[in-house]
């Protein structure tokens, strides 16, 4: 999926969550403790992560956001290498190639 389309998709989903709960943009702004313009921006896909967090918490959908970033914990290999502390930095030995334009399934 093209990374420029993702914010618009998120905005449409936030709007649908709001409509499914029969809330006006003003009601959601009050519940999320953000401005009306912040809600409008979020629904158009032009917002900050902090605003999306506030809105999703108010809508009861914060788990949807957290599901995108599951806690992987410490890898078993890392635990074997260092039993006293967790890894704090990457070694930089792996080189990352640009992602293929894969379709997201969420």
TrEMBL record:
The name this protein goes by in its record: Helix-turn-helix
Bias-annotated ranges (Basic residues): 84-96
Species, as recorded: Pseudidiomarina planktonica
Top-level division of the source organism's lineage: Bacteria
Pfam families: HTH_3 (PF01381)
Record-level Gene Ontology MF annotations: DNA binding
Domain HTH cro/C1-type: 14-65
Top-level taxonomy: Bacteria, Pseudomonadati, Pseudomonadota, Gammaproteobacteria, Alteromonadales
Start and end residues of each stretch annotated as Disordered: 80-106
SUPFAM superfamilies: lambda repressor-like DNA-binding domains
């Amino acid at each position: 999926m093209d990374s420029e389309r993702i914010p618009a998709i998120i905005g449409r989903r936030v709007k649908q969550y709001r409509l499914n709960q029969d809330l006006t943009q003003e009601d959601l702004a009050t519940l999320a403790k953000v401005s009306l313009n912040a809600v409008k921006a979020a629904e158009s896909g032009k917002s900050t992560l902090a605003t999306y967090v506030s809105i999703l918490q108010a809508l009861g959908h914060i788990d949807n956001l957290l599901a995108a970033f599951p806690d992987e914990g410490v890898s078993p290999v890392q635990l074997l290498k260092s039993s006293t502390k967790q890894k704090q930095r990457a070694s930089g030995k792996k080189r990352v190639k640009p992602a293929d334009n894969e379709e997201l399934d969420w």
